[in-house]
Each structure stands twice: as structure tokens, then as C-alpha cells.
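User: Design a sequence. Structure:
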């Protein structure tokens, strides 16, 4: 992956590569030098090939240089949500076995809290904040000069661990190799018309710790020598101003962005430089696409992807024609098949579980590679859909209980485990409900015994605020006397979802 920077620096040394909105910038030659210095500094600090380095940094230059520096040092990058709570960070540091954590001023307090709970804590490298004893600054990590890096001989070397819900249980780290990351970048590059080319200015508002921002956006920019404009966080007005000021031509976003921009006046004028909007990480309704395109004249293309696929699987840019409800056809080099409950192709137009195969697939979940592709290279996604005669994929449902909030994965059991820690909570069931702003939202049904419902709800809300990242926190807490159950005693989450659907239709108060 880091060799993409070396090639770009050789061909276009003086062109801008990465800029912060209204702030600092690096040319391709400067980025190459910075990546080399970080890689050399990591090696001098004892970080060896295969060692894990956790990165808890927002969308800023140091994320890009640290990520690529870790890869050039042939270590393993572990990008995580910088808004994670201390308990979440501690779990990921321990699970990944990270020997170093690189963090910035916005996250360092939480990282310190997490590290303080660990035996044999990792070394801390801090960007832009006052150091405490034992910590090291990012500037001191960087070497004075970059030493030549040995070429990566084995494309199957692990490049990154990205935490995702997987198909069951608590979040697990998907093991992505250099082969997988580069394969998906090349697969996307073969799409016509192109999602990205060298003259593009690409908006980098999607979080870089997320696979969509990390490989579909940053990876694509590296491959095509485009210019990336980093935005720390999405704000409807500020982001539109940045698109105009920086003349962004390609705007990759998550679906909630369209809802935020729906009421903006002069939207067509403010998106004047944009030639293409790309939406991913969660389904986007056909009505929203149609309304947005008719209003602005900017085409919107969406796709289907997963962390385990590095991430892009399909795109409407690959479709023979745009169809309502479709997430597009498979990228070149990716195969899709559907299987029913008996492991056979479904009859006629019946849906089935989506299985995929391609060089972009992960190598299983950390640390032992479990849950990866089978001997023939197929991997079951846990999603349900159907394919039409043209090869377009239509999503129907999910086998796993995943909730997608603003494009981020939330697994209900993780939220349930936290809520069950609250005194007065006897039992809890967490589900996802439709939300106009975030796509889906988390709702918790809590059963209490002899507890004041309002007090229990308040305690749950307060506890979740300290233990869970904001997007995982329940948007609503329903305190109930009983949860619906099957004859075998299992909680019927389908009935809870039915209650929520009736509530959304105004049939319940």
C-alpha cells in the first residue's frame, strides 16, 4: 500500500496530495518523505514487522502519515474510532495486542484512561498535546531522515485490523492484507465511468478509521494521484462551504448526509464543482436519490460493501441501467452467488444469503483467521438479497442483527451487555429502527423488577453515555414489564420490530 505513495511522488512530486480544509497540506513528495520518516522512527522505537499499532486520530494529516508509515514499516495498522469510550479502547488495545497507540489532542484523555486500566500498557505517541511522563510526541517519533524501506515481498502480509461486528457476537477485527486492500482499489479503478481520476479533488469527510474512508477514499486517492481534502467532522453548512472553496469534484458520503442537505437552499449552486456523489456503508432509498438528482443535477451512485471485502462489492456504476432499489452489479473480479437455507441456489426470483468471492476478501477474524472464506474462496456475508437477469443486486434483509447508524455498525449484544450492568435492569433487548437522519437508530427494551421506570431509563442512559461511543447509545429506552418470548424462551425481537413499525405509522402512541 505504501508503495503507491512512492510511485505518485516519483511521477508528480509537486502536486498537492492531501490538504486539511483551510489548513495544512502535503505534496506527493512531502507525503513520501513524511511516511518514510514515520516508518524509520517506528523501527527505531522497536516496532517490528507484524507488530500492531493502534491509531486513534481524527481526519488530519497525521492519520494519513501514521497509517502509511506503519504499513511501510511492515507493521499492522489498527485504526479505531477516536470517539470510542475508554472501555472500548481498552478492549481493542488488549484484543489486538497493540504495542503502541498514536493519538491526538481530542482523544488523548480517553486513551490515557483506557491505558491506565491495562497491565503492561502500550507506549503512547501524542499529536499536538502536552505530554505526560512516559509519553512521546509525534514530532519526536519522526526520524530526521527517512531510511529506504525494504520492498514488501509477501502480499499476504497483514496490513490492517479493522473492528467490525462480523456475523455474530461482539465486534471482531477483520484481518486485511496488502493483497486484499490493493485488490479492491484495482477493482474499483476498472469501473467505467471512473469513480475517481487524477484530476479529481475528493472530499475526505468520511472517517478514515472506517474501511469506506480508509480504502475506498484514501486508497483510491493514492491509486489515482487525486487530491484529498480532509474534513475533521461533517457539518451540513461547513461541508458545503468546503466543497465550494476547494472545488471538490467527487463527494463520497454516508446516506444520512442527504437528509441533512434536504432543506438546504441553493443546493444546486453550492454543489457546483461536484461531478459525482458516491454513497455507501448503508442503503439509500430510491426516493432520496431521485429527489436529490432532480434537484441538483448531480448523479448519485451507491454500492454495497463490507469491511471484510475491503470494502466495495457492487456499484450502480457497474449496472447496465439504473434501477430503483438496486445497489448495482459486482465490480470486475468479484463473484456473487445466492444460497438458500439448504445451501442450494434459490428457485426463481427467491432471495438467498449473499456469498462473495474475490481477491479483495479478508483473511478471517483476528487472531486465528476464523470465519474467513472457505476452501473455494466463498464467504457468506450474512445479508439476504436477490439478483436480477442483468446481475444487479437487491438487498432484502440481514441474517445478522446488525444495526447501521450513520454508516457505522452496531451489534446489539454489545449494547445489551453494557445495559445489563445497570442496577434495576433484569433483562434487555436491543433492536434497530428506521431513522430519517441516521438511517437506523438503536432502541433498547428494558425489563425491570420493582424499579421506577423513569429512574431506570435515566440510569441506563447515563451508563451508556460513559461506556459506549455516541452512535451506539440508544436513542430511546422503553422500560417494560415483560419481553415477548417464543415457546422456547427466546426473546422475539421480530415482535419488537413490529411494535416499532406500528409506532412509525402512527398506530401506537
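Assistant: Done.
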Amino acid at each position: 500500500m505504501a508503495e503507491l505513495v512512492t510511485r505518485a511522488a516519483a511521477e508528480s512530486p509537486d502536486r498537492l496530495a492531501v490538504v486539511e480544509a483551510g489548513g495544512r497540506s502535503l505534496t506527493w513528495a512531502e507525503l513520501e518523505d513524511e511516511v518514510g520518516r514515520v516508518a524509520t522512527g517506528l523501527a527505531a522505537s522497536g516496532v517490528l514487522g507484524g507488530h500492531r499499532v493502534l491509531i486513534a486520530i481524527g481526519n488530519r494529516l497525521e492519520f494519513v502519515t501514521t497509517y502509511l508509515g506503519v504499513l511501510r514499516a511492515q507493521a499492522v495498522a489498527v485504526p479505531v474510532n477516536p470517539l470510542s469510550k475508554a472501555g472500548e479502547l481498552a478492549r481493542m488495545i488488549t484484543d489486538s495486542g497493540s504495542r503502541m497507540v498514536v493519538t491526538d489532542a481530542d482523544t488523548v484523555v480517553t486513551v490515557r484512561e483506557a491505558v491506565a486500566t491495562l497491565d503492561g500498557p502500550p507506549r503512547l505517541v501524542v499529536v499536538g498535546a502536552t505530554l505526560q511522563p512516559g509519553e512521546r510526541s509525534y514530532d519526536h517519533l519522526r526520524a530526521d531522515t527517512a531510511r529506504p524501506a525494504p520492498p514488501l515481498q509477501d502480499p499476504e502480509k497483514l496490513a490492517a485490523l479493522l473492528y467490525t461486528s462480523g456475523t455474530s457476537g461482539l465486534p471482531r477485527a477483520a484481518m486485511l492484507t496488502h493483497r486484499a486492500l490493493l485488490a479492491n482499489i484495482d477493482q474499483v479503478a476498472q469501473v467505467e465511468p471512473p469513480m475517481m481520476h487524477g484530476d479529481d479533488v475528493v472530499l475526505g469527510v468520511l472517517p478514515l478509521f472506517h474501511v469506506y474512508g480508509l480504502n475506498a477514499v484514501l486508497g483510491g486517492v493514492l491509486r489515482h494521484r487525486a487530491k484529498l481534502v480532509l474534513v475533521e467532522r461533517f457539518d451540513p453548512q461547513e461541508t458545503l462551504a468546503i466543497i465550494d472553496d476547494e472545488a471538490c469534484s467527487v463527494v463520497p458520503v454516508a446516506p444520512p448526509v442527504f437528509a441533512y442537505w434536504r432543506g438546504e437552499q441553493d443546493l444546486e449552486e453550492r454543489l457546483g464543482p461536484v461531478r459525482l456523489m458516491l454513497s455507501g456503508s448503508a442503503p439509500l432509498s430510491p426516493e432520496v436519490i431521485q429527489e436529490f438528482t432532480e434537484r441538483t443535477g448531480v448523479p448519485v451512485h451507491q454500492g454495497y460493501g463490507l469491511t471484510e471485502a475491503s470494502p466495495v462489492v457492487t456499484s450502480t456504476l457497474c449496472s447496465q441501467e439504473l434501477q430503483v432499489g438496486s445497489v448495482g452489479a459486482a465490480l470486475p473480479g468479484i463473484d456473487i452467488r445466492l444460497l438458500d437455507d439448504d445451501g442450494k441456489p434459490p428457485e426463481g426470483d427467491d432471495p438467498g444469503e449473499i456469498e462473495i468471492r474475490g481477491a479483495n476478501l479478508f483473511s478471517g477474524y483476528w487472531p486465528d483467521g476464523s470465519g474467513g472464506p472457505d476452501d473455494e474462496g466463498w464467504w457468506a456475508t450474512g445479508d439476504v438479497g436477490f439478483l436480477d437477469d442483468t446481475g444487479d443486486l437487491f438487498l432484502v434483509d440481514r441474517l445478522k442483527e446488525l444495526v447501521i447508524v450513520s454508516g457505522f455498525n452496531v451489534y446489539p449484544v454489545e449494547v445489551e451487555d453494557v445495559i445489563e450492568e445497570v442496577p434495576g435492569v433484569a433483562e434487555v433487548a436491543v433492536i434497530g429502527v428506521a431513522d430519517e437522519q441516521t438511517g437506523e437508530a438503536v432502541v433498547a427494551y428494558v425489563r425491570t423488577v420493582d424499579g421506577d421506570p423513569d429512574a431506570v431509563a435515566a440510569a441506563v442512559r447515563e451508563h451508556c453515555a460513559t461506556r459506549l461511543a455516541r452512535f451506539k447509545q440508544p436513542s430511546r429506552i422503553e422500560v417494560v414489564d415483560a419481553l415477548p418470548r417464543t415457546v422456547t424462551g427466546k426473546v422475539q425481537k421480530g415482535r419488537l420490530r413490529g411494535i416499532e413499525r406500528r409506532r412509525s405509522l402512527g398506530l401506537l402512541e
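The mean pLDDT is 92. The chain has 15 helices and 25 strands.
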